[in-house]
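dumping the sequnces here before i forget
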Amino acid sequence: MPAPRRLLALVLAAPLLLASCTTDSSDERDAGSDTGGDTQDLSFAVITHGSAGDAFWDVVQNGAVAAGEELGIEVDYQSDGDPQRQAQLIDAAVNQDVDGIVVSMANPDALQDSIEAAVEAGIPVVTINSGGDRSAEFGAIGHVGQDETIAGLGAGRELATAGAGNVLCVLHEAGNIGLEQRCSGASEGLGSDVRAVQVDINDLQGAQSTITSQLQSDPSIDAVLTLNSAVAAVAVAAAGDAGSEALVATFDLNSDVISGIQDGDIAFAVDQQQYEQGYLPIVMLKLYAENLNTVGGGQPVLTGPGIVDADNVDEIADLASAGTR
Amino acid sequence: MRAARPGAGDPAQRRADERLAATGVLRRLLVKPELGALIGAVVVFAFFAVQSQAFRSARGVANWMDPASTLGIMAVAVALLMIGGHFDLSAGVMTGTTALTVAVVAVEFRQNIWVAIAAALVVALVIGFVNGWLVTRTGLPSFIITLGTFLMLQGLNLGLTKLFTGTVSVAGIGQAPGFGAAEWVFASKVSIAGAEFRIAVLWWVLFTALATWVLLRTRFGNWIFATGGDDVAARNVGVPARRTTIALFMTTATAAWFVGTTLAVRLTSVQANTGIGQELIYIVAAVIGGCLLTGGFGSAVGASLGALIFGMTQLGIPYLRWEADWFYFFLGAMLLLAVLANRLVRRYAEAARR
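..and the predicted 3d for all of it:
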């Protein structure tokens, strides 16, 4: 059987050949980070819980990468929506002796061990996005994010001003405490309880059907609050499908949300400016590495909420299409 | 061999015997289902180890053994079930169900953690029994039956969690009485060569050894191969095929209970969507390990090696600092390569045997 044997050899040898081709460059990089002092050749790892292809986290990644390029720092972005696998990615970064770690804390309990191990290994950690209240407890040097309850409160007040009374709050990541806080904040701002519904960010078509069914089964719903820009677009479509007059408001921006606001389909977006959540931690870690500076004085550095509505949407439109808003 | 023994004193005769024995070993090695996975694991390890010093360090090994261990425990049980001729698509979500049971009983009902863990075992065994019983009773493909259980459990996980806690995750398991001992059993760390290995790695090795012993050295192991090879023929020669199938489904459920408990104790909080989608990864690990989709052939060691390949790939990519977007592509390519190599090795072995 000569043909299969030759093929077998090829199959087995291919990865090895590939490995030998790329060995040189990575060895140089390893050597660089080993011999580098405090002020040069810094290498930071950014590890988030965003699922691959989530537009929100692409902007965070853009921010981190841009800061790395501008400051001459190697920035490595990894993400996994599963809390245990996110913890394992943090462990991997610690093993690589990176000079700083940025981590989003949607599920603080699950990450506690790994973050504390990083801090113990002498690696400064900055937490971003959710989990600001646990950040200092785990030994992080700072937190960059938006206070979810405050942001939810802002959205609730804004909805109340727009005349909404019966609000549907659409959760898109099961188990993300931050999202729950937004909905409860919205209840507080609105002055009456919102109704929560669970959808899956990885199945937007299913999310649209779910929202449609909610609107159909209860015509008195007069507003839908989505917590992710991608869900906002399908909420608009769902309102159309259901023949509902409910107004749609959302957290976070993307180009669909921008044009939705311009067209009047979406009332407003609560913008947490997540580009800063990628960008600022890189700056903070650099300042800490070179000058032992910390930012925030033990309090989270807030990136939001900012409200984007018909009044200011045009200025922001171009930035959003460039992937920075 | 026994007949040849009187001539063993003759040197020429002994040499002839040794040659025969050596060929036998080579042949037996080549038809082993796990050989392809072993080669695959070596290639994957070499690929990452050559490029990353951190990957091949003791701490790196402890790091990628961690995802491989919990996956491996499940893959071994799923491999037994596949050798027995069946699938369990509810195995992934069942790790979530058991983890949530532990969490809800310990936190919401304020029970000792061991009571919670025992309750979760009962839940798992019931689900496993129902799966197996339905499959043997109806004669429908296990694919369909367990797909139904999968979806039902997914709904129950979310619905019941919200009912009990008002939110989509249960936190605070760490405060339950008896937690320290449970942590020692399920989530402690063992220091080897300066690296902290998770205890799950030890359990994984033990379960693999246990499953291999059952498969190759016990009557039940024979029943598994027989049932998976040909259900009717097995029953005709007196193999209790139904009981074997039900037992295998309950074994998978028990593994899911063990992994779910490990998750709950280690993370101290559990999300309602835990484990969804993992069932395919278990099956893939078993297939890389040489299990046939048609049943009757495969090994527990192979499934463990499949899990090892997964763990190495999952963390190897971040170690190489590759763009994470390519993870699934790379993983898929690895799987294809491994399965292809597996098949070629087996064909070559079968040709050699003739």
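The CA atoms of residues 130 and 178 of chain A lie 6 Å apart.
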